[in-house]
Amino acid sequence: MAQVPLGWRFVMFFLLIGTPSYAADSTAHDISRFIDERLQLKGREDALSFADDATFLRRLTLDLIGRIPTVAEVREFLEDESDSKRFRAIERLLYSGAHFKNMATFWRRAWVPQADTPEFASVADGFEHWLSHELRQKTTYDRLVAKVLCWNSDAGGADPVDPRGFYLANEGNPPNLAASATRAFLGINLDCAQCHNHPFARWTRAQFWQTAAFFAAPGRNDDGKAVPPRIKIPGSETEYEPALLSRERIEWPDTLDSVAPRRILSDWMMTESDSYIAKNAVNRLWAHFFGEAIVEPMDDLSAAAAAVGEHRAELLEELAQAFVKSKYDAELFIQAIVQSDAYRLASLPPPADQSDDAEWIARSTAVIRGLTGEQLYDSLRTAAGLPPERSETGGRGRGDQRREFVSVFYVEQAHNAERSISQALALMNGSLVGELSETSNNPMLAALVAAPFMNLDEQVDAVFIAVLGRRPSTPELQTVMHHFEVRPEATRGEVLGDLFWVLVNSPEFNTNH
């Protein structure tokens, strides 16, 4: 675009953005009711502030399928006056291929975070495609974990659509695999124990290496029979055999193959008395849908759970028990969360005093979150009327532009995400937003300009719905009309392109609220 329109974009930017106004199954229903009761919401509905329909649909769509809703989806939802429309929106999104792809990215980032770095980026596609396939097949969470831990490299084919990415990202190294497996699947951080015993840590150096031994290959005795693996600490003569963190005695099978030790570890994870695998899954899902985990940090539950207040510890424990009773059905648990009143609450900043347990319980839900790089890229294309550059049914094709964009806008913790100066400039001046602000590259804008029956008010309304999922307020509409009046030489496409640029750079577009 020409320099003059770009200047007017900044005028509109500061006029418009400000601070955005944030205003099943029977088992899923039971969990939803429990969440609301535990957060002390039942009986207080009249005193609570709930998100409006437009905000709810945008939040739900971002959380379940990783992008904002389309214009058609927004209009249909806002025009629907039935009491069941939110439930039907939940079901439509939950059973879409896009949801399985979105959750595959979520679990991959939790289990193989190394793939977010250039060194191991190549493992992401195959691992996510495998996860997406398993999720569509209704594979439960415990079976997913077991399939990762018990993957047999000897049975792998040429097409890496399997869990091998977990092993490639850890370079097949037993200590790396032990640290990643306990952190990803149990929420237990053994890293510090690798080199020394910490005086205040629960886990010892011996326990770290005993866990690492599960990922070593079985040995052979003098008769050539396979025996339990042993692992030697580098630079020493100390060796360890596999041992469970609970110190239960291991019953080794008569025949040991390369997977047997990891199968024993996997079976123990599903049955150990502290239910770390369930607590870890619930904690991570809660963080995804509510913005902040019940217990932070998420990869150190064994230490952090003792430091949080009793309300949070009890909430995590009871939700973990419900997850186990559901037979580790993560989709059922997700359905329960998004059906709850807690999920419908209007967004608030996180509690100022994180140490106040009662305050955290009362204000921990619907925290304003920054969009991840994936959400931002796919939402930009959706706002422009373009399909995301990824298959909605689980394909692995991704453009180089998407990879580069996602790496620039990488977010580790959404509730703490703040745009850096370089990220803000990349959004304002980057090639993607610049291209999409041109009518020739934006099917949504092109369709509006070509519609002879629409006046400017209606076109502005359509741009707001496409980008923000809502209609403009009266002051916002007046600002846009004023911008058009002071630029009589501008074409309708240029004015609408300026508006598109302003809105996608606003805090409202860049956050999930």
Helix content: 40-55%
Number of contiguous helices: 27
Shape descriptor reads: elongated
Q: Order of strands in the sheet with the most strands? A: 1-2
**What is the rounded Rg?**
25 Å
Approximate strand percentage: under 5%
N→C terminal distance: 31 Å
Number of separate strands: 6
Classify the secondary structure makeup into a structural class: mainly alpha
Major β-sheet annotation: 2 strands, antiparallel
Average predicted confidence as pLDDT: 85
Which spans of ≥5 residues are poorly predicted at pLDDT below 50?
1-6, 17-24, 391-398
Report what the structure shows.
The chain has 513 residues and is an all-alpha fold. It is built from 27 helices and 6 strands. The protein has a two-stranded antiparallel ribbon with strand order 1-2. Strands 3-4 form a two-stranded antiparallel sheet. The model is unreliable at 1-6, 17-24 and 391-398 (pLDDT under 50).
Task: Kindly summarize this structure in a few lines.
By secondary structure, this protein is an all-alpha fold. It has 27 helices and 6 strands.
